[in-house]
Every structure is written in structure tokens, then in C-alpha cells.
Design brief:
six-stranded mixed β-sheet, disordered N terminus, Alpha/beta knot, alpha/beta, about 35% helix, 60s Ribosomal Protein L30, Chain: A
């Protein structure tokens, strides 16, 4: 393979779409999930820099020819032992989801946590349980707020959009790489919360204790439901308390990202 030299690194030129790393990157973007090796596909200079800031390891970094002049900005941050590839612009555009790509993408190895890892972790802060949030922007906002307001972890239940969907990653502004994340079975999580004395709360748009009056001290798990349907009735029946966020009656409800953010702020304020 021909090699292009720069002042700060070496780029291996890839011409064909059948290269194994290119195929892995495309599949990871298409699926919006981690690869079998636990890697996330990311795109854009800002997100790549967030990966660096988060201390994660790169499997491979891909540049388009148009972005080649900007490689000197990133290569020193990426590290000397990471494979760096140069793709023709047409091939790069066919792999990444953006309509106007910035010319850099990567496969990144992320940290994975089990429910036990989360519950055994001694850090303070509330647990956030996502039960059916489908909009990537909402989940990204929730992850960003979770980091901003000191959540201990975010637990992702069935029917929730993947945290590694490219739109979620972008909306989280890098928080997805730093907050503890775990995919869980909600029935198991609820049983573990009860066994450990963790109070379970859920937001409701129509009934419940007004948020400013709610006791949010101590260990709590806040459940956030689907944007349209909210929490399943079976889940609601298992909550220790429902809380409502006071707002103008002209607005029927807040979206999941805003509601979760407001509750996280109030928990942070009380604690």
C-alpha cells in the first residue's frame, strides 16, 4: 500500500470499499451500535477531540483527502500506535452518515459496564433509568445533562435508542464517553434497587409531588419513559413516588430530554 507522509504521522492510503476497517466503520455507522469488539463509530473533529479528552483508545482513524491538510492538528493527539488511513473523498462520503462530512472519522473502544459495576460503584449521584426514549437528540441531551449535574450512571432499558447512534453521540457533546452506561433488563434493575434501598422516582405530566417539594436526597433512581407514551403502567406501579414539573398549562408536557435535565438539576441542587 502506498503511504503518504506528513510531519506528524503516517497515513495509509485505502482505495477500495472492501478494506476490512472501512467495512467495519460503515457497518458501525449503519447499525448505530457497538461493533462485536466493543467499538463505536464517531465522526467530526470536535467529537474526535472529545474522545481524546475522555482518555479512550482509538482502533483506527480515517481521513478524507480534503481533510488531509488538517491531519497535523489531530495526529499528535491520537497517538503513535493508532492506524491512520487516508480515503478518497468519494469513498469517505459513502461511509459516514453526514451529508457534509468534516473529513475525519474513527473507531473507538468504549468502556462497558454491567448493572453490578454501576451499583457497586461508590460515587455519589442519582441513577437515571431510560425506559423507551426513542429520539436520539433527547437521549444525547439526557447524557449531557447527566454528566453536567453529577449523575452516577445512566441505565438503558429495552426499546431505548442506542447510546452509540451517531446522532446521540453528537448531541451528547462527548458525555457519552465519560458517563457510566449500562444496558439493563428493567425487571432485574428494579429488583436490585429494592434490595439496595434505592428509591425509585418517575416524572408525570399530570400527577405527583411538585418537583420543588419532592425529597430527592439520598440514593434515587429516576425513570424516564417514552416521549409519547411515557412509562409503561406496569413500571409506574412499581415506583416509590411520582413527581411532576410545574409548568404553564398552555404546554401539555415537556419532552424527555428537558424533563430529565430539570429533575437532574433539582437533585443536584438539593444534594
Amino acid at each position: 500500500m502506498p503511504t503518504t507522509h506528513t510531519d506528524t504521522g503516517r497515513l495509509r492510503r485505502i482505495e477500495g470499499r472492501h478494506n476490512s476497517l472501512v467495512k467495519e466503520l460503515r457497518q458501525a455507522f449503519d447499525r448505530g451500535e457497538l461493533t462485536s469488539a466493543g467499538e463505536c463509530a464517531v465522526e467530526g473533529f470536535r467529537i474526535i477531540e472529545e474522545v481524546v479528552r475522555s482518555g479512550l483508545r482509538f482502533r483506527a482513524v480515517f481521513f478524507s483527502e480534503l481533510a488531509q491538510a488538517r491531519t497535523s492538528r489531530l495526529l499528535p493527539q491520537i497517538g503513535a500506535h493508532v492506524e491512520t488511513l487516508l480515503l478518497p473523498d468519494k469513498l469517505f462520503r459513502s461511509v459516514v452518515p453526514s451529508e457534509t462530512p468534516q473529513g475525519v472519522a474513527a473507531l473507538v473502544t468504549v468502556k462497558k459496564f454491567s448493572l453490578k459495576d454501576v451499583l457497586d460503584h461508590t460515587a455519589p449521584g442519582p441513577l437515571l433509568v431510560i425506559a423507551g426514549v426513542q429520539d436520539p437528540g433527547n437521549l444525547g441531551t439526557i447524557l449531557r445533562s447527566a454528566e453536567a449535574f453529577g449523575a452516577k450512571a445512566v441505565l438503558l432499558g429495552d426499546s431505548t435508542v442506542s447510546a452509540y447512534n451517531t446522532k446521540v453521540v453528537r448531541a451528547s457533546a462527548g458525555s457519552v464517553f465519560r458517563i457510566m452506561l449500562s444496558k439493563v433488563e428493567l425487571t432485574e434493575a428494579i429488583a436490585q434497587f429494592r434490595a439496595r434501598g434505592i428509591r425509585m422516582l418517575a416524572t408525570s405530566s399530570h400527577k405527583g409531588v411538585p418537583l420543588p417539594e419532592a425529597n430527592l436526597l439520598g440514593q434515587v433512581a429516576v425513570f424516564v419513559g417514552n416521549e409519547g407514551a411515557g412509562l409503561d403502567k406496569k413500571l409506574l406501579s412499581q415506583m416509590d413516588e411520582l413527581i411532576t414539573i410545574p409548568h404553564s398549562p398552555r404546554v401539555e408536557s415537556l419532552n424527555a430530554g428537558v424533563a430529565a435535565s430539570v429533575v437532574l438539576y433539582e437533585i443536584s441542587r438539593q444534594n
